[in-house]
């Protein structure tokens, strides 16, 4: 089986997974107890609106959001809108569109998580590789430190950093993406203010990323160092530099997978971290939408996460086909 055929079969599988994800993304939010219209009307009732008016408002919103139609008709309408790239209108923040809300929150999540993932991946892999290669006290110290940080949940690190750097030593602001009263704009003053609020959530993520990647890389490198092919290469008299290149190339395969999956899940990956710091990212938007039963926003965000994960996994398949010589040999019929 050739490599293009192998990737074609993988693409067909991922397309099927996407169709299942679209169906589940539509159904699961609607299985959550409660109704978004009831939430809207109950908030109006606290404002002194009379019962007859509340009934009329309830009927209007049910019709406006299409909730008076059978579920299968709602699904067909959803597919029609999705085919035109329309994710709908937010129930809780109408007339704001789902695309507009995601467009406002997504840059914050990408700016927070993508640098943390990439830096954590690079530093963690270098640290793990050095620990496995050098051994001794450096290996023990790096391994124990990495194991400790990787075992801590993101929110625990976030709360500890919040207490240390915003309460005990108040050098960084405790919450938000920017100071109260400011509005996002492309100016030096706003960028400087946003960077000040950026460091606490960034550090809480990158510390855990470094620990997790270092532990994984060290374990894989130690395993490869004891493999038969390493002993065979040494018996052939190959240089250590050549052997080390083979070792770390094989050890990197699971790490590449971890990097791709981390990037694929960055949309909702720091949900709790964003909540702890009140950071205006996608995770906070998703949490708010779930609490309000905002079906279109929940569906739009979960679909975005599903597509990102599937694309990341497919990119891993392509990377494996290029990096792993065993897959290339199998595609040429040599194995």
Description:
The longest helix has 38 residues, at 188-225. It is built from 15 helices and no strands. The N and C termini lie close together (11 Å). The chain is mainly alpha-helical and 335 residues long. The mean pLDDT is 79. It is globular and about 90 Å long. The chain is 78% helix and 0% strand.
What proportion strand? under 5%
Structural class: mainly alpha
Number of helices: 15
Which stretches are low in confidence, meaning pLDDT under 50 for 5 or more residues running? none
- From the N-terminal CA to the C-terminal CA, the straight-line distance is 11 Å
Give the overall pLDDT as a whole number: 79
The dominant shape is globular
Range of helix content? over 70%
Count of extended strands: 0
Largest beta-sheet details: none
Taken in chain order, the helices and strands follow as: HHHHHHHHHHHHHHH
Based on CA atoms alone, the radius of gyration comes out at: 25 Å
